[in-house]
Design brief:
The model has no long low-confidence stretch (mean pLDDT about 85). About 30% of the residues are buried. A hairpin with a 2-residue loop joins strand 1 (about 140-145) and strand 2 (about 150). The protein is flat and about 60 Å long. It folds into 2 domains: about 1-105; about 135-230, no CATH class. The protein is mainly α and about 230 residues long. The longest helix has 28 residues, at about 110-135. The protein has a two-stranded antiparallel sheet. Helix 4 packs antiparallel against helix 5 (about 110-135). It is built from 8 helices and 2 strands; from the N terminus they run αααααββααα. Helices cover about 70% and strands about 5% of the residues.
């Protein structure tokens, strides 16, 4: 239970990455590492959980200082996976306690923490995975000007990020709480209607289609995984 509490708090701190598409400056990522280390001390005190401290520092250094800029999203995903693996190993072998949890927490606390965990995963973590996929296949929206090479259209990319997050949250809520997949079709239809004219451009249509399908796939998998552990 303490590890679930830590993972939720840790994922909340990782929302700092959401609108930052470049490596964080040194003072920023070291400050973020300090916040995460404090979370470890408060939420999962114990000898075994000391392994989490080098894990969170290494995860941030990996993406913000060591990885090439063009692989920033992959580095952030890899760093996140490192911390998650160490956290689960600590929970399995170390049985960490928590200063904030009562000796006998209410039964509703575990499903609440699991639900929040999935909600956070479909936000920034899924966004990192989708952006990594789009970058790998060179599917980012671009803008061009006369005599200049095409560059990533930051305005469109940021709009797509916000739309994608809202879309995933809605789908996640439907999958976990309503479990009515017909509603997903309505959500996707509304998105297609809003961008109907833009979809006439082949490159933009491919960008939207790949992003939407990947977003749907990740969200359904996360939602079903959360339901499995309820």
């Amino acid at each position: 239970m303490a590890i679930l509490l830590f993972l939720n708090a840790w994922l909340l701190t990782r929302l700092w990455f959401t609108f930052r598409d470049r490596p964080l400056p040194t003072h920023e990522w070291t400050g973020l590492a300090l916040v995460q280390v404090v979370l470890i001390g408060v939420l999962t005190p114990g000898l075994h959980t000391l392994a989490l401290i080098p894990a969170v520092i290494a995860s941030l250094a990996l993406s913000e200082a060591w990885m090439p800029k063009e692989r920033l999203n992959e580095g952030r995903l890899a760093g996140g996976a490192l911390v998650a693996v160490v956290a689960f190993l600590s929970a399995h072998y170390g049985m960490p306690g928590s200063w904030l949890l009562p000796a006998h927490p209410p039964a509703v606390l575990r499903p609440a923490l699991l639900g929040l965990l999935g909600f956070l995963l479909v936000a920034n973590e899924t966004n990192l995975a989708i952006r990594s996929l789009l970058h790998r296949f060179q599917m980012e929206p671009t803008t061009s000007s006369h005599g200049e090479p095409d560059t990533v259209d930051d305005r469109e990319y940021n709009a797509g990020r916000v739309i994608g997050m809202l879309e995933r949250w809605l789908i996640y809520l439907v999958v976990v709480f309503a479990q009515n997949y017909n509603v997903i079709a309505l959500i996707l239809a509304a998105k297609g209607f809003a961008r109907f004219r833009q979809l006439e451009e082949r490159e933009f249509a491919e960008y939207v289609l790949i992003g939407t399908l990947a977003s749907l796939l990740f969200t359904v998998v996360i939602g079903q995984s959360i339901l499995y552990f309820f």
